Amino acid sequence: MTDIEYVRAADQGSALALVAEDPDAVFLAGGTTELDLALKDQVVHPSRFVDIGRLPLRGVTRDGDRLRVAALTTMEELAADPTVRERLPFVREALLLGASTQLRNMATIGGNLLQRTRCRYFRDPDVGACNKRDPGSGCAAIEGVARMHAILGAGPSCIALHASDLCVPLVAMDAEVELLDADGTRTVPLTEFYRTPGDRPDVENVLRHGELVTHVQVPLLPDGARSGYLKVRDRTSYEFATTSAGAAVTVEDGTITWAKLGLGGVGTMPWRAWEAESVLVGAPASERTFRAAAEAAIRDPFTVPGTAFKVELAKRTIVRILRTVTS
């Protein structure tokens, strides 16, 4: 293994410069994913870790009807925030179901957004066919064991899954990501931050080299809204989602007047179910409506023998969470 240089950044300017000057340098925050990939799995090969852990990028502030979450805020800190508890309960649920207490105290919100896939083929350097690791080499998951892989946004080049729980309610709530580099700051909607594999599975998001995630802005639920996060998994202890759904709705006189729906465990990126929301708004809060929304959400899935079961399971997950938040 090639030696990796470690540098602790003194401030944001030096952190940006240290990464920008080296095409193989990366930022290091909580390290719960990056260290595994580089040191344990050895499937990524950074030349330099730039530790940003001491930069002033921690904390949660409220600005009107939005929260602004600094990127180095830990999952545990965000889950404990009183505004999240009261006005974004399904974000809190996703955080608590997303990792063990030990990991939640280490893992950062920025890192959670940028976590890499848990695809066993990507994380095994002995597997040669992985377009995400080695573009043009193929996708071993297509014909391999693929139970924990994607059916939405997937295709012949890659079916690797985005495993974040937190991103499911964040993408449903139209969260935005603040990015910083030497040229300044830009803000990108989370729904536009990720990229589907297409013919470049190795390019997972719109982040430019040397660009740093500094904050995440999350709108609060409107008054009267109910929300919930449902995670279906093989065991109730720490485990990644087989399917999941985060939903938020308002209901007046039995009619759904506002709806947001995000899906996990099924997409190559955190999946916003726009079509399902269109079905829900203006419709009665009924089993028939919920099933129609589920059918709209899981439209034209790309499946292989190992993932075909997820089509119906994802639909049932959607129906169940909608039933829960409207009852």
UniProtKB/TrEMBL annotation:
Keyword Protease tagged: no
SUPFAM superfamilies with a match to the protein in the record: CO dehydrogenase flavoprotein C-terminal domain-like (SSF55447), FAD-binding/transporter-associated domain-like (SSF56176)
Entry-linked Gene3D superfamilies: 3.30.465.10, CO dehydrogenase flavoprotein, C-terminal domain, Uridine Diphospho-n-acetylenolpyruvylglucosamine Reductase, domain 2
Pfam families the record matches: CO_deh_flav_C (PF03450), FAD_binding_5 (PF00941)
Annotated FAD-binding PCMH-type domain residues: 1-223
PROSITE patterns: FAD_PCMH
One Gene Ontology term of the molecular function aspect: FAD binding
Keywords: Oxidoreductase
Protein's name according to its UniProt entry: Xanthine dehydrogenase YagS FAD-binding subunit
The organism of origin for this protein: Asanoa ishikariensis
